[in-house]
Records
---
Amino acid sequence: MHFTEPVYRNPYWPTWPLLEITAGCTHNKCKFCTMYKGVRFDVRSIEDIEADLAELRTMVPHARTIQLLSGNPLALPYSRLKPILEKINEYLPDMEYVYTAGRVTDLRNKTVEQLRELKELGLREVSLGVESGDDWTLDRVNKGYHAEDIIEQCGKLTEAGIDFWMSFLNGVAGRSHSRDHAIHSAEIFSQCKPMLVGTGGLTLFPGTPLLEEAQAGEFDPLSEREMLEELLLFVENLTCDCKFITHHTIGGDNLSGPNFLARKDDIISSLRDEIDHGDLETYAAIRRNKVTL
């Protein structure tokens, strides 16, 4: 199997088999991220992909799911993705679900009809690292798109019938813009109606521009209490029914799960309890000790 280090995969999807079709991230400029620093974006050759699929056929001949790597394979144009999905079905004929991560901008070069065809070939779920629905915040951390782009491109996925996830990065706007980040993100996410909303708490990793800006007094990171208060505000304003999960955010044990709207009051209650009674010093120490995702 061909894999480029470091290997990141979505732990909420089936974690095997994996198939690398790209390496790194096309953007690789987000101020908070270290995932693919030093990794040049590259496209795996169809010969390598076929060799990996032949190997997978000997190991898991009846595989029904597969997760495509790496950072944003969805960046490949339709003309490159279609033959890859066809090869997956050729080598693994029981295939039902193809999962992949992507950026909002990866959808700009694809029509709804093309996305429908990719779905027919197995592309069923896409995880989008959206992070915010607030334009100021998106510009501040160099995401490379705005809220109107999120709405337009996610609308294509909805029209094509492809399920998608959206992530909210708790704390990434800093203290000065926390409220707008939370409220505007909840508004945009609610409008897009993803099948899943995931939240993660910002950690300022070594080597990131955002840490350097914080050290220079140019970024005002939130305390653990303020992180939870921002997450609470996001949850209070989120109105789409979805699966809701938290990752990299220390908090109550019952926050994650399906049927968000039915559980919303309980989630809010748990977050308020964490704000008032949680061991915030321990949470802060855990976050400080993280060095990478």
---
Amino acid sequence: MSPAVPARPASDRLRHKTVSAAVADSIRQRILNGELPPGVQLRQDALAEEFGISRIPVREALLQLEASNLVKIMPHRGAVVSGLSLEELEDIFQLRCQLEPQLLALSAPHLTKADLQDLHALSREYSRALEAGEVQRWGELNSRFHLDLLRHAGRPRALTIVSGLLQDCDRPTRIQLSTPSDIARAELEHTQILDLCEARKVDAAAELLRVHIEHVGGSLIAIYRGALAVA
């Protein structure tokens, strides 16, 4: 009977997990700020050399990123930074245009004074991040704003779908917010939506939210089509 292989100490396993999480976080930030655009291949050996570690925690980091839909692990190519096709982008914004205004119409009448104060504070934080060029925070703050607006809709399944759609269009939306005019419009429309909710003009708030999403989607689709034409 062969001797049992000794288990790796718990401290080693924890250190290993910590290293892979740190690598995943570093790569995640590069993807989210556009340094690693969609389609770029992430070679395990090159990353291991860059970080000065073995390939095992790099592979685990890439699996974590795949679970977050930031990376696709493909046969014969390995890990590739994921992206959206034009058709996927159109689908995402069509779904958001359908779902979010309906959910806001259900949620807005139940937004409390405290909810609205929190939303105004979040909107100001979003504006500061836009003005400061803190790109990595734009998607997070925008998603929080939209989801907090809809929090009282009483439709948990629909909210889960919207949350996934917002995550999917996080990176593309940063592209759309690359011009001062689009930044100014995003800030203004967020404030106007809140003002309408506060005034209990629910239908008007829902319609402005639809227009807001439609404009972002239209701008992004135009950017994607322009990029395809150049390619």
